[in-house]
Design a protein that fits this description.
With 203 residues, the protein is α+β, with helices and mostly antiparallel strands. It has 4 helices and 11 strands, in the order E-H-H-E-H-H-E-E-E-E-E-E-E-E-E. It folds into 2 domains: 87 residues, no CATH class; 80 residues, Translation factors (Elongation Factor Tu (Ef-tu), domain 3, Beta Barrel). It has a 6-stranded antiparallel β-barrel. Strands 1-2 form a two-stranded parallel sheet. Strand 7 and strand 8 form a beta hairpin. The longest helix is centred in the first third of the chain and has 17 residues. It is elongated. The chain starts with a strand and ends in a 22-residue tail after the last strand.
């Protein structure tokens, strides 16, 4: 995980290391409670999103004299000085294209049929395949798939897609939050147990 401390160029902060360390100390207990091993899995980075400092190009040493020494020493678990540079060093976990299809529906509209919008979280969606819409368990045929607004034969994990559902699928049959699945579909439950951690409550 990369934790970015933004607005370091604010007039009340002015790239203060004290403020940067204070933000980190407040975040550590929460990140530990989420199961992260701080020294191995979490990297901290100060940036100015508005000015772009430490995003692509490293902040000027005259503005922030402590940062280069900090990351050169490997402090805060990073040896790279910029956000883009840090992201380039992270190995991405490979998504499995052969896994069951799972596409949470983010929206839908009508255009000579019902078009569902979503992101392929797992599996590969193809034109012509049959899918199950959960939680209603209605089955439909995929009449078309679009990625980046271009028609494609198939879309793989990580791609944002438009999926045209045939077989009599009306727009009201496909709601935001539904999941497009291959067989066997994902499980639907009425109750679930979860852990919720609140970092800070507003006054």
């Amino acid at each position: 995980m990369v934790v970015v401390i933004n607005k370091m160029d604010d007039p009340t902060v002015m790239w203060s290391k004290v403020r940067f360390d204070e933000c980190i100390s407040k975040l550590r207990p929460y990140l530990k409670s989420c199961g992260y091993i701080i020294k191995k899995e979490v990297k901290f980075l100060p940036i100015s999103g508005l000015g772009g400092a430490n995003v692509k190009d490293e902040v000027d040493a005259a503005v922030c004299p402590w940062w280069k020494k900090s990351y050169t020493n490997g402090d805060n678990n990073t040896s790279v000085g910029t956000l883009i540079g840090l992201l380039d060093t992270i190995e991405l976990k490979e998504r499995v294209p052969d896994a069951p299809v799972r596409i949470p529906v983010l929206g839908r509209y009508t255009d000579r049929g019902t078009i569902a919008m979503g992101k392929v979280e797992s599996g590969t969606i193809r034109a012509g395949m049959k899918v199950v819409l959960m939680p209603t368990r209605n089955e439909y045929k995929v009449e078309g798939v679009w990625a980046n607004e271009e028609p494609v034969l198939a879309a793989r994990p990580g791609e944002n897609v438009l999926v045209k559902l045939g077989g009599g699928c009306a727009v009201e049959d496909c709601q935001k939050g539904f999941v497009i699945c291959s067989k066997p579909p994902c499980r639907a439950v009425s109750k679930m147990i979860c852990d919720i951690a609140l970092l800070d409550m507003p006054d």
